[in-house]
């Protein structure tokens, strides 16, 4: 793969600005998409028009399309004029992914050498500006047929770019691609706790808060939540967690001087003091393979999971304290505004947009609720019932974008009634959540990164 770096012109002016940016600078609306699902996993970026329809074959509303070597499910992130993502390159596994609705728990048997690579791309042109190999070696943990060895989405604050490859380590670069430091966190085995030989690789993504990197590492042995200084990787705090492997990413809720980290889980959904790691509240979940990330809107955290008989959706008040687990006959309490059983999402993180909660299940059944009280507005299936949905929905410009594993991006008009605006085939498997920046929808397919926008 080539390594290109812009040395003159507007890009260098941008870098000069980025070099002066404080580590936790608030992103201008609609420009930066700094981590998984953008600003605090909200999945929303406003302020610019975004097309509902495009055509890949005819290049209609397609700004650029850039091939990405290897295999990765990490979502693109954006800061200013730069897009970052990761990939894992191997001579053996090539582009093998097995999409679809199935229950195979087996691991891919691949002991070939992999390169874990961080890639930086120009947002306006799609040109690769630089790429850096973080780690080379045989993976310490195998992957699921739907997984890759580059699942965790990167995080940036405009000065640092943080990449997490699970058992292959934590890496911090500057925006020019210079490695600042790396850290080995040991074996992080996210196997199925019922059948530990079924290894599925790591999936939780790092987030940045107040010059700290926050990591949720729920694994077979020694689960923990931890904070590390972004400047040098030194540990700030580490809190043990008694949970089985999970794949969700933490979220942050700030209220006045207080800040808490909210995490999904099976044995331990919970909130922790973001600056000390002290546990604030906890509850048992309903699904034993939690994947969706908590979504925080105003004073509620929306948490869902779906592997198991309960398959819940919870709306948890951010004033929660202690053990807030619901009793068997309860659907609400002092700490839980509302909950629904048998309506949870297995893979995709929900979306709150315009006061409505959109939750797309693995089989394409989309539920829309009032975020405040859980009242259902509609239920509608996307696709024909045989298509799986792993990517999480995102929203902008009054529209919601939901990608299927088969590579169709469904565009809906936001609101309490279902209205399909377009169905856009990408021509490839699509399992990563898109990014949105300045009126550009950036979609990672199995082999490419594609930018969608209105004509300039």
List the helices and strands and how they pair.
Blueprint: H1 10-19, E1 62-67, E2 77-79, E3 82-90, E4 114-122, E5 128-137, E6 155-156, E7 160-164, E8 170-174, E9 179-183, E10 191-192, E11 195-199, E12 207-209, E13 212-217, E14 224-229, E15 235-240, E16 251-255, E17 258-263, E18 269-273, E19 279-283, E20 295-297, E21 300-304, E22 313-317, E23 322-323, E24 336-340, E25 351-353, E26 356-360, E27 365-370, E28 376-381, E29 394-396, E30 399-403, E31 408-413, E32 420-425, E33 435-437, E34 440-444, E35 448-453
Parallel strand pairs: 19-23
Antiparallel strand pairs: 1-35, 2-3, 3-4, 4-5, 6-7, 7-8, 8-9, 10-11, 12-13, 13-14, 14-15, 16-17, 17-18, 18-19, 20-21, 21-22, 22-24, 25-26, 26-27, 27-28, 29-30, 30-31, 31-32, 33-34, 34-35
Q: What's a concise summary of this model?
A:
With 456 residues, the chain is an all-beta fold. The protein is 2% helix and 39% strand.
Total helical elements:
1
Largest sheet: 5 strands, mixed
| Principal-axes shape call | globular
Mean pLDDT score? 93
């Amino acid at each position: 793969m080539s390594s290109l770096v812009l040395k003159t012109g507007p890009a260098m002016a941008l870098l000069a600005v980025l070099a002066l940016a404080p580590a936790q600078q608030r992103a201008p609306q609609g420009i930066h998409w700094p981590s998984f699902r953008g600003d605090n996993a909200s999945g929303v970026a406003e302020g610019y028009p975004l097309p509902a329809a495009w055509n890949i074959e005819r290049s209609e509303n397609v700004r650029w399309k850039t091939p990405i070597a290897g295999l990765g499910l990490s979502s693109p992130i954006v800061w200013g004029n730069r897009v970052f993502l990761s990939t894992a390159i191997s001579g053996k596994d090539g582009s093998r992914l097995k999409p679809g609705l199935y229950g195979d728990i087996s691991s891919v048997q691949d002991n070939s050498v992999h390169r874990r690579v961080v890639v930086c791309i120009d947002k306006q042109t799609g040109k690769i500006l630089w790429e850096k190999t973080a780690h080379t070696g045989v993976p310490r943990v195998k992957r699921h047929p739907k997984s890759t060895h580059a699942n965790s989405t990167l995080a940036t604050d405009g000065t640092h770019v943080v990449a997490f490859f699970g058992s292959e380590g934590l890496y911090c670069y500057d925006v020019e691609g210079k490695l600042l430091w790396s850290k080995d966190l040991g074996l992080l085995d996210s196997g199925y706790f019922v059948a530990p030989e079924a290894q599925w690789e790591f999936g939780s993504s790092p987030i940045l808060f107040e010059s700290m990197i926050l990591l949720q590492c729920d694994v077979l042995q020694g689960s923990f939540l931890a904070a590390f200084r972004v400047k040098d990787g030194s540990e700030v705090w580490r809190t043990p967690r008694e949970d089985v492997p999970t794949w969700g990413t933490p979220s942050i809720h700030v209220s006045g001087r207080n800040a808490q980290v909210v995490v999904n889980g099976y044995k331990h959904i919970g909130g922790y003091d973001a600056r000390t790691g002290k546990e604030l509240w906890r509850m048992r979940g309903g699904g034993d393979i939690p994947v969706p990330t908590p979504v925080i809107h105003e004073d509620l955290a929306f948490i869902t999971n779906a592997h198991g008989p309960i398959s819940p959706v919870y709306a948890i008040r951010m004033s929660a304290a202690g053990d807030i687990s619901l009793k068997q006959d309860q659907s609400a309490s002092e700490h839980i505004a509302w909950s629904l059983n048998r309506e949870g999402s297995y893979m995709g993180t929900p979306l709150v947009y315009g006061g409505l909660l959109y939750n797309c299940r693995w089989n394409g059944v989309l539920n829309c609720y009032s975020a405040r009280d859980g009242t259902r507005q509609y239920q509608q299936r996307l696709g024909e019932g045989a298509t799986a949905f792993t990517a999480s929905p995102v929203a902008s410009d009054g529209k919601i974008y939901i990608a299927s594993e088969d590579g169709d991006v469904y565009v809906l008009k936001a609101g309490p009634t279902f209205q399909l605006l377009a169905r856009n085939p990408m021509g490839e498997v699509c399992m990563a959540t898109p990014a949105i920046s300045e009126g550009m929808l950036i979609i990672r397919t199995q082999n490419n990164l594609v930018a969608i926008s209105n004509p300039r």
